[in-house]
Design brief:
The chain is built from 13 helices and seven strands. The chain has helices at about 40-50, 70-75, 100-115, 125-155, 170-175, 185-215, 225, 235-245, 255-260, 285-295, 305-315, 315-340, 345-370, and strands at about 5-10, 15-25, 30-40, 60-65, 80-85, 265, 275-280.
Length: about 375
C-alpha cells in the first residue's frame, strides 16, 4: 500500500464500541470508514499499531462527550496528536436527516482534515478530580433545594404558612419542628422530610470541607486566595469557577474569557442592519451561573467589610488594587444601568461580564508576579 505523510483518524465514541473513519492527507485524499472497534485500551492500541505501520504521521480526534478524556490521554501517551472536538461547534448540514455512527465518524474526519474543528481544553487528571468534587457539591446543593421545596409544599398543602421574613434560618427551623400534625402517618412523613434536609445540608458541609482541604495540592489552588479578595467571591465560588474554567492563562484576552462563558451579546446582522440580542449562553453554564450569583453583591456601594478585610489583606498588592477597582467600577455600572431602566437581572449579567475581565486580570497579575520572582 502507498505510504502517506499524514493521515487523519476520527472516532465516534460510545459506551461499548467506537466507529473509526480515516482520511488521507490532501484535498483529494481518500476518506473511508475503517470499521468499529471495542471501546477498550487494548483495541485502541492494536488499531494504532496497525495504522502506524502504514502511515508516517497520524492525527486523531473525537467528540467530547460522556466517555471522558481517557482516549485522549491514551493517544497522547502513545505519542500521537489528538483533538477533542467541541460538540456545539461541529458543523452539521441542515438537510441531513440521517444520523448513525458511520456517518458521524466520516463527517468528523473530513472536518478534522479541513481544520474546521475547535478543540476543548482537556484538564489533567488531578484537575478533573477537583472538578468532579466541585460538581458533587453542586449536585448536593440542588438536592437540598429540592428537599426544602418538598417540605414547603407539604406545609402549604396542610395550610401551615410561615409568617417570618427569611426561610430556613434558625427561627424557621424551630417553627417547623414545633408543628403538631393530627395523624401519625403525616408526622412520620414530615419527620422523614426534615431528616432529608438535615442530611443534605451535612453532605454539603462535608464536600465543602473536602474542597478546602484539597486546595494546597491543586495546581490552581494559589489562585483561589487571590480571587477571594474580590467582592462576592468566597473560597467555594472561587474554586468552582477555576474548576469549570480551568487555566485562565489559556485565554489571550478578557473578551475571549467572556465569550467562553457565554456572557457576550448574540448578534444577527446582515447588510446595513445590525441586530444584537441577549447573551449567547454558550460555554460552561456552571461557571456562568456562579459568576452571576457573585455579581449580585455589586448592587451595594463599594466597601470592605470586617470579614472581608483579612482576605483582602492576604492578597498581593496588585490583586488588592484590581479588587478595589472592580468594586468601584462595577457598583457604578450597576447603578447606571438601573437608572437607564434596565431590569436588575440584565444589569447583574452585565456586571458579571465585566467581573470575568477583572478575574482574568488578577490571574495575569499573579503570573507576572511569579515571573518577576
Amino acid at each position: 500500500m502507498e505510504e502517506y505523510s499524514e493521515t487523519y483518524v476520527a472516532f465516534d465514541t460510545s459506551k461499548l464500541r467506537n466507529a473509526v473513519a480515516i482520511a488521507e492527507g490532501g484535498r483529494r485524499g481518500e476518506v473511508r470508514f475503517f470499521g468499529e472497534i471495542d471501546n477498550t485500551e487494548a483495541a485502541v492500541r492494536k488499531l494504532v499499531r496497525k495504522l502506524c505501520g502504514q502511515h508516517k504521521r497520524l492525527v486523531f480526534c473525537y467528540e467530547a462527550g460522556p466517555t471522558g478524556y481517557g482516549l485522549y490521554r491514551l493517544l497522547k501517551e502513545l505519542g500521537y496528536e489528538c483533538l477533542v472536538a467541541a460538540p456545539s461547534l461541529i458543523a452539521k448540514k441542515p438537510g441531513d436527516r440521517v444520523k448513525n455512527n458511520r456517518r458521524d465518524a466520516l463527517s468528523l474526519v473530513r472536518q478534522l482534515r479541513a481544520g474546521e474543528l475547535t478543540g476543548v481544553w482537556v484538564p489533567d487528571e488531578h484537575h478533573e478530580a477537583m472538578r468532579d468534587l466541585s460538581r458533587a457539591r453542586d449536585a448536593a446543593v440542588a438536592d437540598l433545594r429540592r428537599k426544602r421545596q418538598q417540605v414547603s409544599a407539604f406545609c402549604l398543602r396542610l395550610g401551615r404558612v410561615y409568617k417570618g421574613e427569611t426561610k430556613w434560618g434558625r427561627a424557621h427551623l424551630n417553627w417547623l419542628m414545633s408543628q403538631k400534625l393530627p395523624h401519625a402517618e403525616q408526622r412520620i412523613a414530615f419527620e422523614e422530610m426534615l431528616l432529608g434536609v438535615r442530611q443534605a445540608k451535612e453532605r454539603i458541609e462535608r464536600l465543602e470541607a473536602a474542597l478546602r482541604a484539597s486546595l494546597p495540592d491543586w495546581s490552581l489552588g494559589h489562585v483561589v486566595p487571590a480571587l477571594m479578595a474580590m467582592r462576592g467571591i468566597d473560597a467555594i465560588s472561587a474554586t468552582t469557577l477555576l474548576c469549570e474554567i480551568g487555566d485562565l492563562s489559556r485565554f489571550p484576552t478578557p473578551r475571549a474569557l467572556m465569550a467562553f462563558l457565554g456572557l457576550v451579546p448574540s448578534e444577527d446582522s446582515t447588510g446595513d442592519r445590525i441586530r444584537r440580542g441577549p447573551i449567547t449562553k454558550t460555554g460552561n453554564w456552571r461557571a456562568r451561573r456562579t459568576l452571576v450569583e457573585c455579581s449580585w453583591s455589586y448592587r451595594h456601594p463599594p466597601r470592605v467589610g470586617r470579614d472581608k478585610a483579612a482576605k483582602v489583606a492576604a492578597a498581593p498588592r496588585a490583586v488588592r488594587e484590581i479588587a478595589w477597582k472592580a468594586q468601584t467600577r462595577l457598583s457604578a455600572r450597576y447603578r447606571h444601568l438601573i437608572r437607564k431602566g434596565k431590569l436588575k437581572t440584565v444589569a447583574v449579567t452585565a456586571v458579571a461580564r465585566e467581573l470575568s475581565g477583572f478575574i482574568w486580570s488578577i490571574n495575569r497579575a499573579l503570573l507576572e508576579k511569579g515571573e518577576a520572582a
